[in-house]
Amino acid sequence: MIGIDFGTTNSAVAMADKSGHVTTARYPSGDTESETFRSILFFTPPQKGVRRELSAYAGPEAIDQYLNAEDGGRLIQSIKSYLSNSSLKSTSLFGKNYRFEELVRYLLRSLKAASGKSGLPIGTKAVVGRPVRFVGSASPADDAFATKRLTDALAMAGITEVHFELEPVAAAYSYEANLKKNELLLVADFGGGTTDFTLIRVGPDARRMGDSQQRVLASAGVGIAGDSFDAKLVRHLVAPLLGRGSQWRLIGKTGTVPNWPFAKLEHWHHLSFLKSKENMDALRSLRARALEPDKIDLFIMLVTEDLGFQLHRAVQQAKYELSAKQEAIFSFRVPGIHVSQKVTRAQFEAWISDELQSIASCVDHMLESSGVKASAVDRVFLTGGSSFVPAVRAIFESRFGRERMVGGSEFTSVVKGLALRSRDLSHRSR
């Protein structure tokens, strides 16, 4: 059995041997290798007279194909975020409808093939991570719906025997691997689409409990994470340079340009939706009446040239720099668009203040509902990309103290824990 971390932004695969040593799959990425596989799909249209079916690419290959495509295509990102959305049953790709589960299968099948090439073949059995609360889930029924969809997609990819484990619980297994004393651990797992928390007992006594649920005192989750932080940077830093908040001419007066195009901009993988004839006509009409048409021209170029991914990388680079420094230069340079703008950490923290409050409230509510005082928590394990954001760390330092903060393997702790969990389950089944 193997561990699979199917993530919103990145996915990963790992296996643990009898001694507990964990090996992660490694994937080619340019001139290097990565322990993570981008959860991204790119479809190219069928070629007339050459092939009838569209071609599907995933991971690093999808990015390469997207950046070098000459005949267009369809880029799909953050697909995990739509698992609980019962209204999204299918999507049209170049005139043909595909079930949502088929899209997830494309990604899982590619992850499976890439992991096999790395020396970690995925068979029919796996321990798969899942969030405490799926993005968009408002009820147990939504959660069950998302789980069923993921189970079906895994089966379509040939993985028919699945044991789901909460992602923060998996991270706890990874943290516990070399622990020789008992602790009450709070895990905060920051993904691309969700942030999950678990209070769990770890250490020698906890290992003897067997069932992971016997260890867990409480779990909670919120649909806010790295993608939400990126969206706020786009809203306040990028969108005004492309026309958000500017004025346009109305009958007998002026008004603020509509916000709907910029809402798409906040989620870069939605930009392709704006390329329909109806939306492009609307953008050109907006441009014709705009008081600052040059800004709308830049926005239209961003859409028509499929520059969302490049914009996304520039936004993430600024976010990473703000985690290390008090200010950064947001730089987005492509042919025809040169943007350079200073941004401070204080500005960024003000922009994400609502998200920070939601994360803090979720932690506080979990502690209150479990009856566990902050002073009783021995260690706080922060994992995932957004755990590096200073304002995020400050939430936990203010409640538990800096001396109790621990981290490590921020991008692979979940999959390593899933691998260890799969080893335990394999041993018990014998």
In this structure, how is the largest beta sheet organized? Answer: 6 strands, mixed
Strand % is: 25-35%
Measured as a percent range, the helix fraction is 40-55%
Residue runs with pLDDT of under 50 for 5 or more positions? none
Give me the number of helical elements: 15
Please, could you describe this protein's structure?
Strands 1, 2, 3, 6, 12 and 13 form a six-stranded mixed beta sheet that branches. Helix 4 (167-176) crosses helix 15 (413-429) and helix 9 packs antiparallel against helix 10. The protein is 41% helix and 25% strand. Strand 2 (10-16) and strand 3 form a beta hairpin. The chain is built from 15 helices and 22 strands. With 430 residues, the chain is an alpha+beta fold. It is globular and about 75 Å long.
